[in-house]
Structures are given as C-alpha cells and as structure tokens.
Amino acid sequence: MQSLWMLAASLLFACMGVCVKLASSAHSAAEIVFWRSLLSFLFIYAYARSRGLPLTTPHWRFQLQRGVSGLLSLMLYFYGIVMLPLATAVTLNYTSPLFLALFLVVLAGHRPPLMLWVSLGLGFVGVILLLHPVFSGEHWLAGSLALGSGVLAGLAYYNVKELGALGESEWRTVLYFSGLSTVGAALWLVLSGEGFGAFALRDGIATLELLGVGGFATLAQLAMTRAYKRGRTFLSASLAYSTVVFASLFGALLWGERIGPDGWLAMALIAASGLLASHYSRAPSRGGKPA
User: Fold this and answer.
1) Residues 142-158 as b or e (16 or more Cβ within 10 Å = b)
2) Pick from 53, 118, 199, 290: CA 20 to 30 A from residue 178's CA?
C-alpha cells in the first residue's frame, strides 16, 4: 500500500512540472517560485496553528542553510523545466542523491563503501550522456543550471538529514523552507525589476496553472512523506524515479518531446546510480543517530 503513496507522489511531482511549464507562458520563473512557495507556506502554517504546534526552532542555522540551498535549487529547477524537455530537467534534478552522497563524504566525513563510488561513477556517466545533446545545441546554459539544481538539492537534503538527526520535526522544516523561499522569490522579483505588479494573479487560466504548481507540490510532499515514513526506504526511493517516466509521457503527449536511445540509457544510469547512492549512503549522522 505504501508503494502506492510514492507512485502518487511521483505522478503529482510530474503534474507540478507540467503546470510550471504551462505557467511559464504568462509568468516568469521568479513568479512561479513565489506562488508555489507562498501556497505551501500558507497550507503548512494553517496546519500548525490549527494543532497549536510551536513555530520557533532552536536549529535556525541548519534551517537557514536548508532554506537558501532549497530556494536556489527550486529556482534553477523551474528554469530548467521551462527551457528543456520536461523529462531532461526532471532527470538532472534527480541527480541530487549523487551529490548528497558526496556531501556526506566531504562535509560529514563519512567513509563510503566501494559500491557508493561505483554508483557515483555510473551517475556521472549518465549525466554526460544526457547533457551531450544539450551542450551541442543552444540549451547548454539551461542544462548546466538544471544540473546545478541537483547539486543544490543534494545540499538541501544533507541539511534535512542533519535536522532530522537533531530531532527537528518534518513539518517545521517544510514551513521554514517555504517561508524563506517566499521571501527570497519576492526579493528576486523586486530586484529583477518586475515590480510589485508581478505579485498579482492574472487571468483565470494562468491563475489555475499557478494554483496547480502549489497544490500539486504540496500534495506530492505529503504523499512522499507518508511513503518514506511508513514504507521501506529503499523501495520508496526506487519508485521516486517513476517521476521521470511520468514526465516523459507528459512531455510526449503535451509538447511532442521525444527522447532517443542515448537519453533513455542516460536516465536509466542516473536512476540506478541514485538508488545505489541512496542505499549505500545511509550512514550514521554526526549525532550518532541513523541518518
């Protein structure tokens, strides 16, 4: 039953990607990030207040690091979705387990087993294959930024693991991330010269697309949390890569995107390496508790 929750989360994340791509015709990436973050923040805040849960945290430094890295990753990811085939952007973002493994080695001093290095090697071969047609065309910058979203997402997940080891609640981490992302995206809008008019919702279709981004993202987070909390971690991580399959199907149906044999091979390598990295990087955190 729990595997169905992860499949549902994967489908919802792919639907979020579709809404991001659709909304980009009327809204900038900064606007999309702003509304996605604001809607998620309001939902989690209402939940916390209705339960009388405390909002303050003693771990504000890790929350700040998680929030900033997560915001930058989200910005780059949404930009990648707008500029690249949906499945390509999603797959590059899903390199995050590889970079999480590297951060655990570099920042936490973990001594990885040989299979973790094998998984990292497989993953980077997959990245090279996937980026080869991108770098040979006009989308090399978008491809680089989408890969950057995977790097920053890996750093954000490292901070999430540390927060979990310190006993921080999941909902509070999501609340702080959403709040910081809302403020950061608002500053981005002002500094980019889009002005306060960018905060206004426009016509009905564009508004529904933005609501779809926030709604699908929030539902996907809830489904994913339940899958990881009640299901088997490695099975959940395996099924998470079905987002790439759903994104490929949506891209083909809605925009006529096609993926060649090299692309499918690259995606398979990245998925396999991500699964291996998730499995072999589950080492103790600095607090001595399971990561």
Assistant:
1) bbebbbbbbbbbbbbbb
2) 290
Q: Which residues contact 39 (CB under 8 A, 6 or more apart)?
A: 211, 213, 214, 215, 217, 218
Closest CA to 74 of 35, 23, 106: 35
Q: Diameter of the chain by CA atoms?
A: 54
- 24 to 17, 79, 97, 143, 245: CA distances (angstroms): 11, 9, 28, 17, 22
CB-CB contact of 7 with 227 (8 Å): no
Mean pLDDT, consecutive 10-residue stretches, the chain (291 aa), reads: 78 95 87 90 92 91 91 94 90 85 79 76 80 67 91 88 82 90 90 66 78 89 72 65 88 88 85 76 42 31
Among residues 31, 56, 74, the alpha carbon closest in space to that of 196 is found at 31
Contact 214, 41 (CB under 8 A): no
CB 111 within 8 A of CB 282: no
**How many other CB atoms are found less than 10 A from the CB of residue 32?**
27
